UniProtKB/TrEMBL annotation, chain A:
It comes from the Eukaryota. GO terms for cellular component: early endosome membrane; plasma membrane; SNARE complex. The gene is Snx4. PROSITE patterns: PX (PS50195). This is SNX4 protein. One of its GO terms (molecular function) is phosphatidylinositol-3-phosphate binding. Keywords: Protein transport, Transport. GO terms for biological process: positive regulation of autophagosome assembly; protein transport. The keyword Protein transport applies.
UniProtKB/TrEMBL annotation, chain B:
GO terms for cellular component: early endosome; phagophore assembly site. It holds the Pfam family PX. Residues 92-213 form the PX domain. This is SNX7 protein.
Amino acid sequence: MEDCLAKKMEITVSEAEKRTGRNAMNIQETYTAYLIETRAVESQSEGQCAPVDSLWRRYSEFELLRNYLLVTYPHIVVPPLPEKRADFVWHKLSADNMDPDFVERRRIGLENFLLRVASHPVLCQDKIFYAFLTQESGWKEMVNETGFQLKADSRLKALNATFRVKNPDKRFTELKHYSDELQSVISHLLRVRARVADRLYGVYKVHGNYGRVFSEWSAIEKEMGDGLQSAGHHMDVYAASIDDILEEEEHYADQLKEYLFYAEALRAVCRKHELMQYDLEMAAQDLTSKKQQCEELATGTVRTFSLKGMTSKLFGQETPEQREAKIKVLEEQIQEGEEQLKSKNLEGRDFVKSAWADIERFKEQKNHDLKEALISYAVMQISMCKKGIQVWTNAKECFSKM
Amino acid sequence: MEAEGRVPGPPLPAGGEVPGADSHLAAGALGTARGPLLAAAKVLALDDEEDDLEVFSKDTSLTEVNSFSPSVPISPSSMINQYKFEDGPELRDLFITVDDPESHITAIETFITYRVVTKTTRGEFDSSEYEVRRRYQDFLWLKSKLEEAHPTLIIPPLPEKFIMKGMVERFSDEFIETRRKALHKFLDRIADHPTLTFNEDFKIFLTAQAWELSSHKKQGPGLLSRMGQTVRAVASSVRGPVKNRPEMFTEMNNYVETFCQKINLLDKIAHRIYKEERDYFNEMKEYGPIHTLWSASEEDIADSLKGIASCIDRCCKATEKRMAGLSEHLLPILHEYVLYSEILMGVLKRRDQIQGELDSKVDALANKKTEKDLFSEEIGKLENKVERANNALKADWDRWKQNMQWDMRSTFTNVAENNLRYYEE
């Protein structure tokens, strides 16, 4: 494993703060700023800690960083950011961006993002990324100076390419399918999970009513009173336990969400490939037609119908000098074109190679992460059941003493 | 009272518990006016041969009765011992089942009859097995006869005529089954009750053929006298709360009111939980298959995903079991007690009414000592009866509720344990 930034530096997003300020349109707004702390890791620390550097960033700056990375490294599957707005909420969870729970989960997500970039063998070496972590002022200007926005491919162009490309690499087509499937299945899963969580919450909470009624009832009972009262207490405990359980589950949901967004990143790489491939095909096509034209002019035969041919037939032939000139121009163009084609081909092949390498890396990461997430989910469920067993065993005891 | 028909005869159980029997037989001779209580006591004391009654809770009840009715000079310890000896459900002698619902279609109406099978070893029954068919109306008749005969005893509840809330089709299988179970419960409880079980109408209900039953039904106090009763009841409730009501009954009244409230709440809660669980189950049904779907696009983690999918499905099944447990055990019982609380209110009202009669007679006939005595005794009788019944019920119910809760809890604990077992990734 190459030496990546993550090994040299400890990165945390440790705090979040509400701020007010003026935005680009000079309107007063409230936003949340996150504190990024970095500290160099000493390889054999003699008990001395390097000083901690810190700076504040807000979500939009993270977005800027990511867009920059997307454009600059189109062959890399760039880690996604946590969601902008809360999706897949179930009723207790608030969809408010200012809600402390949401902010907290976002903080964790942002830290995760930084760590992922820092541990990526290619991305971690980017200067802008480094500056993002260490240089508070002037970073925005630095990013904009790279002019990456100009390099960005237009959406329209990309869409066009998707439909018109003839021979994309099979692997990329499969990958695109896979990422579509992944996205749809994960979002479906998250939706259902949210509903299941909602219902489960209901079941637990209604049991809390038992607690109240039991305790009221125990007031009028003599022999049953104590048993009822303590059973009621256990019902309350049961009802309250669901909050923690579901919060933990939320964390699991976030892990899945990351891969939901990763699917989009995968698609971006595929799109880039399609674009390049389309470019290539267009260039090749262009070259072929020019060659043909040249040939026609040289031999005087009109093999295919062309307007030029028709007009020349109608309005008379060109002079040999004119024809010579044309042929010369065309030959130059053809030369250029062939060179371009060669370099495009090279580019394309390089792209495919490096992209595919990163995709393999991503696949391994994904399998590993998802497996861990699933395991932790199962562990969560087991612990939930254990708690349930405990509560109900206690309740059973109370009931039997009634 | 039917109980008078029993003659002290069969040998008393040997052993240390016996001595008391003599003393309360003697006591029984003291005042025949002590009527039903002692008669019943006599009955209870007599047998182990005939093994009349299910007495698993009688010990507590009698203790309390003794503490409340000083007029009965029975040595408590002996009675307690007597009952303890007779403890145990295997000593019942009257077994009833209700099953086999059949629908009958006539020109006028369609109705369902249930087969009621009785097995008994009691002497007063001519044979040891009876099988008759009864319909809901017959049960209603029985209940009203019992109420007439024992206005201050707690008659078990019958399932309702129809359920408004559930919009259940009158002849749906679910409805019929629920009703059948409740009818069975009803008869069982009557059989368990120390007094009601000897009621003549009860016996006829269990044994008579259809035509015998209808002719018997036509006898008995007509509509008018029943109306008279109702009028009196209304009049007495108009009179306002009884002034001489003993403290105990006021307490009981308060208790029943609160209890009624609470049990209704519990019933609602239980239904709500059931509904939430059902919704949860419905969502879960979708949850598992998604994982299977996902596993189709994956290679490495396909197995893990499939594993989770199957676990989720098993959770679903466990949830189903839990729901079934709820609806089979908890819900019907809560419902029964909701009905019971209404019955209790009714019983207390009737008791008040009787006391009201007594009071008014006392006021009116302050001079005629004998009559007063008669009524006093009558009221004493009845009050004692109420207490006995009430406390019998209470003890019964406490223990019984415990069983019920136990069932529910073990169902649930089972589910949780199942969950645990199944959740191995």
